[in-house]
């Protein structure tokens, strides 16, 4: 993890870069791409894994529901993450369920929903990263990592 600390020469305050937070969000985007790839691999190989994590137990879900993500809960980008994230996981898992049942139509419909949710999720994560960098302070009780510290 990269954490950059520098001192503002005019004020003498130390400032912590948001590199840590944006890196964490970038990692969640990568993990969702890998998760989606696993869905397609299972569908193409007809070898189904016993367990695929849902939206609450993946890295982003843990970050969102119980982790550091809650510091951004007052932002629109944070609040708008939940629906596409849930839809992404649920539709991917539905595609696997339909494939096991031999329902090709249901499988394709679920994959289309997963792809749509994937695009929406990526946009929301990008918006959240932008807000984490540029909107300071984030809230009175949880200042942005870019806010000056004494």
Automatic annotation (TrEMBL):
Source taxon at top rank: Bacteria
InterPro entries assigned: Chemoreceptor_zinc-bind_dom
Residue intervals of the Chemoreceptor zinc-binding domain: 32-95
Protein name stated in the entry: Chemoreceptor zinc-binding domain-containing protein
């Amino acid at each position: 993890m990269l954490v950059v600390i520098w001192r503002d020469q005019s004020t003498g305050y130390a400032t912590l870069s948001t590199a840590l937070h944006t890196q964490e969000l970038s990692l969640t985007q990568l993990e969702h791409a890998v998760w989606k790839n696993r869905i397609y691999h299972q569908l193409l190989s007809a070898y189904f894994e016993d367990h695929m994590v849902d939206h609450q137990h993946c890295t982003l879900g843990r970050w969102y529901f119980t982790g550091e993500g809650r510091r951004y809960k007052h932002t629109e980008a944070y609040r708008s993450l939940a629906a596409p994230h849930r839809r992404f996981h649920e539709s991917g898992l539905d595609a696997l369920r339909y494939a096991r049942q031999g329902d090709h139509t249901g499988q394709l419909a679920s994959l289309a929903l997963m792809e749509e949710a994937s695009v929406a999720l990526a946009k929301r994560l990008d918006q959240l990263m932008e807000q984490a960098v540029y909107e300071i302070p984030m809230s009175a009780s949880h200042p942005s990592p870019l806010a000056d510290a004494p």
